[in-house]
Amino acid sequence: MSLVKIAEISEQPSSSFLHIEKFLKEKNVAIERINFPAEQAKDLLVESREKKFDAYRLSYEMSQLILEKWQTQPAQVQLLGCCDTFLYEEKNYWPRVMLYESLREAIVSRITGYDIKEASYVICDDLKGRVLVSLLLSLGHRRVYLVGEDEDFVQAEVNFLKRFHVGTEILALSSHQLTLQTTKAAIMISTIKYADEHPILDDLVYFNFMKAGGVVLDLNFEKPKSLLLEEAERASLQTLPPTYLSAFYDFSLIQKIKTGMSFGFAEFEQSWNQFLAEKVQNSP
Predict the structure, then answer these.
(1) Which of 73, 199, 258, 282 is deepest in the core (most CB within 10 A)?
(2) Per-residue pLDDT tens over the stretch 232-248
């Protein structure tokens, strides 16, 4: 069995990759996990095709620095101008937007009875927003609102997305205008962390901008509980646990890497939930 090697370009290891390491070791898979600080990011992949790791995970912002010098890019990465993974396939590293792929599959397989003809909202203050807007458009929504605190940033992102999403409505919305909207949405995806005491969070839980029976997703992946989703469920809205979505995201990556082992998603998801529960229990 070959050694599985995964890397993150980040200052601190994520719970996600720590769990992947623990899970594979428990399956007797030889694995090496390492973190690289941001200042090394440009040199790790650029000008090198030698296989060092099976996969790199990184932020969308950091990926832009690498993609500036990356010649061969899939069409989706070219359009979005960012990625979250570099995966070693076919004797080369390929940039991928694996959150888009896994989240789309999760929504299609687990959410039913909501109307894609209705509008949708993405609540996000970083480049992940462009990935999520594109995802919702791919599902069939024709109108998507990108909502954030920094109005200039949000408008710039909307202008960027409009260049290649023809025949759709992509609109910028400042966060203080959200609860004033008369357009009801069928789905809302939020990446805002409650721990950050973001001013928009108090407005989100009113859900007066959501259609009855709509869908609310929280992409705070390392939290076993979501106050936003608890409020959404009280408002009779559909939800998916962030732990399910994050497990799906990580499991999709493992499936792409040849570990030499066979195991199912349910086992991996259960392990992830247990890992997070132990982390909370052991935290000061």
Answers:
(1) 73
(2) 999 999 999 999 999 99
Same domain, 119 and 179: yes
* Phi, psi torsion values for 174, nearest 5 degrees: -75, 150
pTM above 0.70, yes or no: yes
Instruction: State the pLDDT confidence band at 227, using cuts at 50, 70 and 90.
Output: confident
pLDDT at 49: 62
What CATH number should be reported for the domain holding residue 256? 3.40.50.10860
Mean pLDDT for the stretch of residues 50-65: 90
Phi and psi at 140, nearest 5°, equal 120, -5
SS3 at position 118: coil
Instruction: State mean pLDDT over 98-118.
Output: 91
pLDDT value of residue 192: 86
Q: Which domain holds residue 18?
A: 4-96+245-282
pLDDT at position 197: 60
CB 35 within 8 A of CB 21: no
Spatial neighbors of 274 by CB under 8 A, at least 6 apart, are none
Give the model's pLDDT for residue 72. 85
Q: In terms of DSSP bridges, do strands 143-148 and 85-89 run parallel, antiparallel, or are they unpaired?
A: unpaired
DSSP letter for 260, please: S
226 and 110 co-located in one domain = yes
The count of domains in the chain is 2
Please indicate, yes or no, whether residues 52 and 12 belong to a single structural domain of this protein: yes
Question: Does residue 259 share a domain with residue 194?
Answer: no
Tokens found for residue 133: 């807007």
Is residue 72 within 8 Å of 83, Cβ to Cβ?
no
120/76 same-domain check = no
- DSSP letter for each residue of 8-52: EESSS--HHHHHHHHHHHHTT--EEEEEE-GGGHHHHHTT--S--
